[in-house]
Amino acid sequence: MECRSVRKMLVWLVDEDLPAAGREALAAHLSACKSCAAEWKALALPKKIGRSLPPARAPEYFHTRVMARLRAESQSASPWNIILALERHVVPALAVITLVFVSTFTYIEFRSPKVDIYQAYDAIFRSGDRPQRMLIADPSDITEENILQVLSEEDLGPWPPVQDVPSKRD
To answer: 164 with 170: CB under 8 angstroms?
Structure first.
C-alpha cells in the first residue's frame, strides 16, 4: 500500500467506517511504516482522551428550570406569537384567493374573441361617411403650411393629391 492511500484510510479507521479487510491491510502497513504509525497515533489520541474522561452531567434542576421556562413562554400571548399563529392560517387563505382571482382573470382573457387592432382603430377613429384615402405626396411638398392647410379643410379638398385606397373590408 502507498502512504497516501493509507492516510486517507486512517480517517475512516478513526470513525470506525473501515471494513475488516481494509483494517487488516492497514495494520500490516502501520507495522512496517513508522511515519504512518506516528500519524495514526496522533489521529487516535483525541478519541482515547475522550473515552478516558467521565461523561458530562447537566447541573442540578436543569431539566426542571428548562421545562418551567418553556411553559412560561408558551402561555404568554405576545403580539409576535399572535402574528405567527395568524400567519399560519391567513397566508394560505390569501394565496388561495389570489390563485382564484388570477385563474378567473386568465379564463376571461382567453375566452373573449381576439380583436383585430386595425379594425378597432378604424371603428374608433375613422368615420363611416368618409371614404378611406391615402395621401400620396412628394417629401418636398410636406411643409408646415401644407399640413395646416390640409387640417383646416373640412373634406380634404383638392390639395394634396388624394387617391382612393381599397379598405380591408372589401
So the answer is: no
For residue 158, give the C-alpha cell. Answer: 383638392
- Per residue in 62-92, pLDDT (tens digit) is 989 999 988 887 776 677 777 777 888 888 8
pTM: predicted TM-score of the whole model, two decimal places: 0.34
Distances 101 to 87, 96, 105, 106, 111 between C-alpha atoms, Å: 21, 9, 6, 9, 15
Residue with cell string 497515533: 41
**Residues whose CB is less than 8 angstroms from the CB of residue 132 and which lie 6 or more positions away in sequence, other chains included:** 122, 126, 164, 165, 167
- The C-alpha angle 57, 63, 69, rounded to 5 degrees, equals 140
CB of 37 within 8 A of CB of 28?
Answer: no
Please give the grid coordinates belonging to residue 143: 411643409
The C-alpha cell of 139 is what? 417629401
